[in-house]
Amino acid sequence: MQGRNAAGALMRMTDSDNDVIVIVTARFERRLTEESSALQVAMARGFGDVRTQIAQLRAGMIDRNADLLKRGLVFGVSQTAAIAGIVSVLR
């Protein structure tokens, strides 16, 4: 009789352990889903901020490049005029 009672108790304990495992697994999966969703939202915001900063830097670089191009053209034209003037004086 004791063997049967022990076997029955073991079966009940195993069944309740399975229920606990199912509950814990469900909680873990729910929590994992919540945390991964929060991480995705945070990453999307962060990447959006980075993209905005990159766009602002590129706009600033375009303005700087245009300014450098203008200065370079003015310098080139003035140097060409100076050299042409010197050559015409020396002839």
Give me some keywords for this one:
mainly alpha, 98% helix, 91 residues, 1 helix, rod-shaped, 0% strand
Query: What oligomerization state is this entry in?
Result: single chain
Largest sheet: number of strands, sense, barrel closure: none
Class inferred from helices and paired strands: mainly alpha
- Taking pLDDT < 50 over at least 5 consecutive residues as the criterion, the unreliable ranges are none
Rounded to an integer in angstroms, the radius of gyration calculated over CA atoms is 38 Å
In whole angstroms, the N-to-C terminal distance is 129 Å
Describe this structure in words.
The protein has 91 residues and is mostly helical. The longest helix has 89 residues, at 2-90. It is rod-shaped. The relative contact order is 0.04. It has 1 helix and no strands.
